[in-house]
Amino acid sequence: MSTVETGSAQATPERTTNPLAVLATPWAIVIAVPLIISFLDPSRFDAIVGFAAAAFLGTLPYIAFAVILIAWLKAAGAEAAIGRAFEGRETRAIVLAALFGGLAPFCSCEVIPFIAGLLAVGAPLSAIMAFWLASPLIDPPTLLITAAALGWPFAIGKAVAAVGLGLAGGFIVKALTAGGLFTSVSRGTVRKGCGCGPSPFDGRPVWRFWAEGHRTDIFSAELRANAAFLAQWLALAYVLEALLVTYVPASLIAGLVGGEGLGPIVVSALVGMPAYLNSYVAPPLLAGLTEQGMSDGAAMAFLIAGAVSSIPAMAAVWSLVRAPVFATYLALGVTGAIVSGVLFQMVV
Questions:
Q1: 85 occurs within a structural domain
Q2: Which of 60, 155, 180, 286 is the S-S candidate for 147 at Cβ 3.0 to 4.6 Å?
Q3: Where are the alpha helices (DSSP H) in the chain?
Q4: pTM of the predicted model, to two decimals?
Q5: What is the number of domains present in the chain?
Q6: In this structure, is residue 158 part of a structural domain?
Q7: pLDDT at 165
């Protein structure tokens, strides 16, 4: 799920018949902000637009690679390979679920029927939790976009944190289940989300997808949809970053989340939880915050907490499982964010 917003880019762009709704799209904001600046603060117009344009153009190679990769995974049917990771022994399933969580080419709504299928066939909750924790944190596009905005140490650190959080969460849930908790897991209903979610066990991946016409069509459709999705959100992210760097005093950021102690990391994790920033918008904004004085550990904690507790990620969990499982998911997420921030700060 990566995460969109957890994960991977939404395969089918939203359509609306309401003309007013167009005003709330990322592109409308991208166009409106420079126009407003040109009227209210014309002396900074060139600097803001130049900053945003240069940052966006610098990210284009990463966007292109990410779009091609996610379209290939979709056309090949990689979901089937990921689904089979949950079969077999529980310990093996936890490990594979945490590893594959960062590769899952799902949008936020697609992960709902995928996990529902796993629950229906009796996959262990521990493995499902490992996947659920890891999936919103990283996917191929998020990895590349994070590297472009914050550098490869951040991107690799977030990927390691995703797998580590998945493994820790999976084995903790395994221990809790063995102790008698989570006797009732599912809510008993399956919500279909956007209707585009795959069955976790149907079919086999076809990595040389170009030999089959319908898979080539899927590749083309995914290529176009993901390119449009990533372009609009990254354009918005870099415009917001330009505003942040220009107008927010560095002393304010440094005072809240600067420094080397535990406090800024905890604050960033707690702020990141309710802050809904998808995985494509957050890295550029955090790049601006780190330039203003935010510590690296605090930035990592914000990235992790925001992805795990984003609205789509929480909706996926709440729609399928009972309150104790949902509470455990959030507790593991915020704790993992703080621990990841502390460890990243120490390493960096």
A1: yes
A2: 155
A3: 26-40, 45-76, 78-84, 90-101, 111-120, 125-134, 140-150, 152-178, 213-247, 250-257, 262-272, 282-291, 296-308, 311-320, 323-347
A4: 0.69
A5: 1
A6: yes
A7: 94
Nearest alpha carbon to residue 83 among 121, 48, 47, 42: 121
Q: Which of 94, 171, 112, 96 is nearest to 321 (CA)?
A: 112
Amino acid at 109: C
- Does some domain include residue 20? no
Q: Is the distance from CB of 63 to CB of 234 less than 8 angstroms?
A: yes
Residue-number span of the structural domain to which 308 is assigned = 2-7+49-347
Among the listed residues 143, 69, 130, the one whose alpha carbon sits nearest the alpha carbon of residue 96:
130
Structure tokens at 266: 């905890």
C-alpha span between 10 and 131 (Å, rounded): 19
At 321, give phi and psi (nearest 5°).
-120, 165
Contact 139, 110 (CB under 8 A): no
The model's pLDDT over 61-105, given as tens digits with 9 standing for 90+, comes to: 877 887 887 788 778 877 666 666 677 788 988 998 888 876 666
Residue with the larger pLDDT of the pair 257 and 263: 263
Which residues, 6 or more positions from 336, have their beta carbon under 8 angstroms from its beta carbon? Answer: 133, 161, 164, 165, 168, 169, 304, 308
Q: Compute φ and ψ for 230, nearest 5 degrees.
A: -65, -40
Mean pLDDT of the chain: 78
DSSP output for 289-311: HHHTT--HHHHHHHHHHHHHTSH
The two structure tokens encoding residue 32: 């409106």
What CA–CA distances, in Å, run from 58 to 52, 61, 149, 303, 326?
10, 7, 9, 21, 39
Assigned token pair, 295: 């510590």
Q: Is there a domain that residue 57 lies in?
A: yes
